[in-house]
């Protein structure tokens, strides 16, 4: 996680080299799908032609498809996703289904003024999709890390990296990601890394945050306190869940169960017919069936 210009894409690439796992950028994959004219690409084309943003379900399908590939079996780095809480929740469900829960969520922290300056220098290679910065991370010339047969990267400035749109992007980013950060903080997955300094310094902080886990990366007492409060809330919720399970009816013989169901139904409809004012029929029926039990207790 990190605002546009926080350097998370660059750091993800460095982690790819060090850990030997792929970086999964949903934006790049989507562009590739559209270029290749796959089913997903066509679906995205249709959505975008209608002037809409690609929906969460399509984005999750893209991720599901990508993480199934052989190079992602040892792990992967998600870059640029999730951006909203709904996406975060969808991703958690998908990862649970696949049996590969997320290990950590890293937040790259940079001040707003620095972000605007950085973005104006950003360039992307149209051949290999690598991201450079003409000020802080220029490509080598000649290039040895572009696609085969190309000795120079073909750099271009993305429209949304142009200064006029940057401030609006930062505002939208803040608004959308604040709930996502709380979501991951509450889940105990968030690691915050200061993303100011040399590339190597930031990579070292990143690796320390990943290796050290939650406690080492906890940057403020307020955050730890909030997590502790969440854990307490969760602990308090547990007895309620246990009670709910205990209240579930014990498995009866089929005939008896059917008879009981019928009885419950008629009690319900009787209650509904009586039309007790301001009380739902279900509750009225429950009260009725519970009453004798209370008597026998006394
Ligand atoms: Zn290139």
Bound molecules: zinc ion
- Fourth CATH level, the homologous superfamily of the domain at 8-107 and 172-217: P-loop containing nucleotide triphosphate hydrolases
Give the tally of β-strands: 7
- Overall shape: it is globular
Question: Care to describe what's here?
Answer:
The structure is a single chain. The protein has 298 residues and is mostly helical. Among the domains are: 8-107 and 172-217, 3-Layer(aba) Sandwich (Rossmann fold); 249-297. Helices cover 59% and strands 8% of the residues. It has 11 helices and 7 strands. The strands form 3 sheets. Strands 5-4-6 form a 3-stranded antiparallel β-sheet, with no helix packed on it. Helix 4 runs parallel beside helix 5. The protein is globular. The termini are far apart. Zinc ion (ZN) binds at residues 125, 127-128, 130, 146, 153.
List the helices and strands and how they pair.
Layout: H1 8-19, E1 23-25, H2 26-36, H3 39-49, H4 56-67, E2 77-79, H5 85-98, E3 105-109, H6 112-119, E4 122-125, E5 131-133, E6 155-156, H7 163-186, E7 190-194, H8 199-217, H9 221-247, H10 254-274, H11 281-297
Parallel strand pairs: 1-2, 3-7
Antiparallel strand pairs: 4-5, 4-6
Helix pairs in contact: 1-8, 2-3, 4-5, 10-11
Bound molecules: zinc ion.
Zinc ion (ZN) binds near residues 127 and 128.
Provide a concise account of the structure shown.
The chain is mainly α and 298 residues long.
Can you give keywords for this protein?
globular, two-stranded parallel ribbon, 11 helices, three-stranded antiparallel beta sheet, mainly alpha, binds zinc ion, 298 residues, Rossmann fold
């Amino acid at each position: 996680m990190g605002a546009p210009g926080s350097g998370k894409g660059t750091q993800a690439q460095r982690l790819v080299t060090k850990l030997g796992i792929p970086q999964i950028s949903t934006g790049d994959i989507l562009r590739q799908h559209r270029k290749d004219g796959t089913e997903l690409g066509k679906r995205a084309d249709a959505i975008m032609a209608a002037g809409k943003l690609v929906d969460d379900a399509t984005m999750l399908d893209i991720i599901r498809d990508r993480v199934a590939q052989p190079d992602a079996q040892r792990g992967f780095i998600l870059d640029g996703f999730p951006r909203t809480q709904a996406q975060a929740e969808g991703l958690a469900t998908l990862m649970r289904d696949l049996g590969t829960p997320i290990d950590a969520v890293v937040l790259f922290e940079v001040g707003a003024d620095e972000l605007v300056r950085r973005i104006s220098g950003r360039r992307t290679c149209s051949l290999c999709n690598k991201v450079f910065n003409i000020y802080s991370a220029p490509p080598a010339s000649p290039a040895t890390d572009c696609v085969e047969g190309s000795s120079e990267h073909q750099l271009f400035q993305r429209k949304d990296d142009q200064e006029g749109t940057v401030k609006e992007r930062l505002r939208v980013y803040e608004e959308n990601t604040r709930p996502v950060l709380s979501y991951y903080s509450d889940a105990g997955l968030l690691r915050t890394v200061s993303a100011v300094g040399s590339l190597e310094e930031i990579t070292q902080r990143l690796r320390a945050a990943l290796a050290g886990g939650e406690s080492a990366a906890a940057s403020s007492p307020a955050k730890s306190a909030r997590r502790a409060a969440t854990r307490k809330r969760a602990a308090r919720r547990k007895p309620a869940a246990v009670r709910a399970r205990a209240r579930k009816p014990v498995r009866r013989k089929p005939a008896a169960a059917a008879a009981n169901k019928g009885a419950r139904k008629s009690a319900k409809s009787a209650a509904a017919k009586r039309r007790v004012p301001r009380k739902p029929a279900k509750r009225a029926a429950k009260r009725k069936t519970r009453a004798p039990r209370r008597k026998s207790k006394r």
